[in-house]
Amino acid sequence: MKSIQDFSFEGEGRGLQNRLAQMFDPESGRTVMLAVDHGYFQGVPKGLEDIRKTVEPLLPYCDALSPTIGGLRTLDPWSRVPIILRATGGNSLERREELDDEIVTVSIDEVVSANAIGFTASVYVGLPRQRQTMENLVSLINEASTYGLIAIGITAVGDKLKGLFKSEKGKQLQYIRDASRILAENGAHLIKTYYCDGFEEVVESCLAPIVIAGGTLRPTKEALEFTSDAIQAGAVGVDMGRNIFQSENPVAMIQAVRAIVHDGYTPASAHDLYQELSKRKAEKR
Fold first, then answer.
1. Per-domain residue ranges for the chain?
2. Which of 160, 192, 281, 284 is catalytic?
3. Cα separation, 246 vs 143, whole angstroms
4. Per-residue pLDDT reduced to its tens digit, 168-217
5. What φ, ψ does residue 229 adopt, rounded to 5°?
6. Is 192 annotated as catalytic?
7. pLDDT digits (tens, 9 = 90+) for 119-139
8. DSSP state for residue 121 in the 8-state scheme
9. Which of 137, 162, 202, 213 is exposed most, by the fewest CB atoms within 10 A?
10. Cβ 4 vs Cβ 21: under 8 Å
11. Where does 4-218+234-241 sit in CATH, by number?
12. Angle CA(13)–CA(14)–CA(17) in degrees, nearest 5?
């Protein structure tokens, strides 16, 4: 297993190091981020129809929150949970063939004004607009360096690559390994990517810490198993969305994920915790 302490940020300045300290648990050295930025290209995702109603009960259990600028404006400004803002967009599921057609949608001035500690930007490695999306990330990194903001590069996958992964399983590891390294080489402080078989190879070849994307909605046990597998393989945390806010019991689910990431629970013991918390909630009704 790895933690944020296994990586050196000494050359980045005190500001960035302090912001990392805000989103990583001081004991485990890992993080549980809650992703709620899906509406920027999905419209109204199930579970986020009312962002405030869904998100605010989860805030005590996440180490950082990943919303859009619009989603952030709906939330309680008195919350002390660190914010990582989604900074690129412009696409939508209505035009799946153009998912990689992203632009910068949130300026660094807006990130600073929102008191966010950093931002996320997607890069579609291997797709037609790779250069465009890489330019989005790099331009944000260069401007953000003045303020010591955390840059999280996301290895975004379009439908064409999803099809390749299904037909050629070995290509998935190769792609995730190479895409993660490319984003790190171009200056991302953290990489958000997908877990796959052989993930230890991705971790060892990447220059930056990796947090795992939750991906599509999975059964509870399966989501907890892949969380544990990713942490055991060297990920320093998760940035999970649908597998928490679309869970039958989101508050119980995020606590079960935390138990794996921070406390070393096995998937089975984390699932027991999920069931126990869900039972208590049902008894209170």
1. 4-218+234-241
2. 192
3. 35
4. 667 899 999 999 999 999 999 999 999 999 999 999 999 999 999 998 89
5. -60, -40
6. yes
7. 999 999 999 999 999 999 999
8. E
9. 162
10. no
11. 3.20.20.70
12. 95
